[in-house]
Design brief:
Distance between the termini: 42 Å
Radius of gyration: 36 Å
Largest sheet: 5 strands, mixed
Strand order of the largest sheet: 8-7-11-9-10
Helix content: 40-55%
Order of helices and strands: EEEEEHEEEHHHHEEE
C-alpha cells in the first residue's frame, strides 16, 4: 500500500471521521460534533454514521467514504451547502499468525509488512523442545477458555441491545449459547442493564410529558382569563358609551370619561399579556416535544453504535477462538514433535486472504507482502536429518 487513499477498507478497520460545513448565509464554519469521532467498519462491511445510517465502506477508499458521507448528509438533511467530510485511518484491521512462531495470535497491522517482519513481531521461529507441545497446549487451552467466555458474553449483549432497539422489556437467551453453565449470571447482568436503561429513558420522557401537560394547563387557564377579561372590556365599553352621552349633555364631568377609557386600555393590555404568555407556553411545549424526539434518537444512535462495536468484537473473539482451537490441535499432533537434536526444520509459509468475499490460501515466502486481515501460517516441512 503506497498511500492511505489507495487502501481498500474492510471489516475491523477503524476510521477517524470529522465533518464541517461552510454556511454561506452566515459566512462561518459549522463543526458537526455529533458526527465526529472514531468508527469501525462492521462485519457487514458498513459504517453506522449518525444522520447517515448504514453506509457501505468495504472495498472503498477513505476519500470515497468521505465523499459519500458529505453527499448523504446534504441529501438527507436538505442542506444548501454540502458538508465536507475528512476520513483518516485510525487503525488498520489486524493480521494473524499461527504455527511455528514463539507467540501466535493477533497483531496490529503496519504498512509495508512482510512475512519475515510478521514472524519477527511474533517473537521469531518457535524452538522445538520436548516440552513445547505441553506448554503450547496449556497456553492455547487457557486462551481458548477466555475467548469462549468472551463470545458468550458478547452474544448475550447483542441480544440485549437488539431488545432495547425493539423497545422490548426482556430478551430471549440465544440458542447458540443456551448450554453454557455461566449463562444465568451473564443474562442477569445484561437484564439489569436493559432495565436500568429503559427506566432511565422512561423517566426522562415522562418528565418532558409532565412539563407539556403543565404548560397546557397554564394555556387553558390563560384562555379562561382572556374570556373573563374580554367580558370586562365589553362592560366597560358599554359604561363608557352611556357616560359619553351624558358628558355631551353636560351632566357628567369629562374626568369620568377619561377614567373609563383608561380602564378599557388597561384591560385590553392585560389581554395582550395573556396572549403573549400563551404563545410562550406553546413554544415551550414545542421545545419539550423536540427534546423528547432528540432523546429517543440519541438513545437509538448510541445503541446502534454499541451493536456495531459488539458485532466487531464478537467477530474478533470467534476468529481468536478458532485460532486457539487450531493451536490446540497442532500442539497435540505427535507428527510435529521433534525426532532429534540435530534435526533442522524447514518452514513453509502461506497466507489465508479474503478477496471480494472469497477466502483463498496463497503460498508465500519471507518477502511476500502481508495485507490487513491476512492469516499467516508457518508450518514445518518434512525435516531432513544431517
Amino acid at each position: 500500500m503506497a498511500a492511505a487513499d489507495e487502501y481498500r477498507l474492510s471489516s475491523q478497520d477503524k476510521l477517524n471521521i470529522r465533518v464541517a460545513e461552510w454556511q454561506t448565509v452566515e459566512g462561518t464554519f459549522r463543526d458537526w460534533s455529533a458526527v465526529n469521532g472514531e468508527y469501525s467498519v462492521g462485519p457487514a462491511g458498513t459504517l453506522s454514521v449518525p444522520f447517515v445510517g448504514e453506509l457501505p465502506a468495504a472495498g472503498k477508499t477513505t476519500s470515497e467514504v468521505a465523499a459519500a458521507i458529505g453527499e448523504a448528509l446534504q441529501r438527507k438533511l436538505a442542506l444548501s451547502d454540502r458538508p465536507e467530510a475528512s476520513v483518516e485511518m485510525a487503525q488498520y484491521r489486524p493480521f494473524y499468525i499461527s504455527g511455528e512462531v514463539q507467540t501466535p495470535g493477533q497483531y496490529p497491522y503496519v504498512p509495508e509488512l512482510t512475512v519475515l517482519k510478521a514472524i519477527s513481531v511474533a517473537g521469531g521461529i518457535r524452538r522445538n523442545t520436548n516440552l513445547r507441545a505441553d506448554r503450547d497446549l496449556i497456553t492455547a487451552k487457557g486462551s481458548h477458555d477466555v475467548y469462549a467466555d468472551q463470545r458468550v458474553r458478547l452474544i448475550v449483549k447483542r441480544a440485549r441491545i437488539e431488545a432495547e432497539l425493539a423497545d422490548k422489556p426482556t430478551f430471549e437467551v440465544p440458542k447458540e449459547v443456551a448450554d453454557d453453565p455461566k449463562l444465568p449470571g451473564i443474562v442477569a447482568d445484561e437484564m439489569a442493564i436493559l432495565t436500568a436503561d429503559q427506566k432511565k429513558l422512561k423517566l426522562r420522557l415522562q418528565a418532558l410529558d409532565d412539563l407539556k401537560k403543565l404548560l397546557q394547563s397554564e394555556i387553558d387557564s390563560l384562555q379562561k382569563k382572556i374570556v373573563n377579561q374580554q367580558r370586562q372590556v365589553d362592560l366597560a365599553k358599554q359604561q363608557l358609551s352611556g357616560i359619553g352621552s351624558l358628558a355631551q349633555k353636560g351632566l357628567v364631568v369629562n374626568t369620568r370619561v377619561l377614567n373609563s377609557q383608561q380602564t378599557i386600555a388597561d384591560l385590553e393590555g392585560q389581554i395582550l399579556d395573556y396572549d403573549t404568555a400563551i404563545l410562550t407556553a406553546k413554544q415551550a411545549i414545542s421545545k419539550a416535544t423536540q427534546d423528547a424526539i432528540d432523546l429517543e434518537n440519541s438513545q437509538n444512535a448510541g445503541l446502534a453504535a454499541d451493536r456495531q462495536q459488539t458485532e466487531s468484537d464478537l467477530n474478533e473473539a470467534v476468529l481468536r477462538l478458532n485460532t486457539q482451537k487450531d493451536l490446540m490441535a497442532e500442539a497435540m499432533d505427535p507428527a510435529l514433535m521433534p525426532t532429534g537434536d540435530n534435526d533442522q526444520p524447514n518452514l513453509l509459509y502461506a497466507l489465508v486472504r479474503a478477496v471480494n468475499g472469497k477466502t483463498s490460501e496463497i503460498d508465500a515466502t519471507e518477502d511476500t507482502p502481508v495485507l490487513p486481515g491476512d492469516v499467516i501460517k508457518v508450518k514445518l516441512a518434512p525435516m531432513t536429518s544431517q
